[in-house]
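Would you mind writing out the residues of a protein together with its fold in token form for me to study?
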Amino acid sequence: MLEDIEADDGETEPLSLPDYDEEKLREEKRKELADLPEEDLRAELARQDEEEREWQDEYGVDGPDELEATIAEGMDADERQQRRRVAYYWRKNQHVREMIEEVFDG
């Protein structure tokens, strides 16, 4: 949905965002990853595994969707923000993992 923004003259204009081609961006990232040594990619996967195990232990959940489901109104605002942040990074890890696995699959 486009939101209106106010111009200097008081008129409103639709906010337009660049038209990113998601597949093109993914392909560029895959190429960057393919240029890295396999050892570095495997180290990144191991780092993600460790980080996700820590989140599983800390929050008692198996994934970012379950983590977000634990966010409750009665929680401290900082705790809600932290859980949202962890869920974001967990999804980011999953996204990067998929691209690394695509590099390995050729």
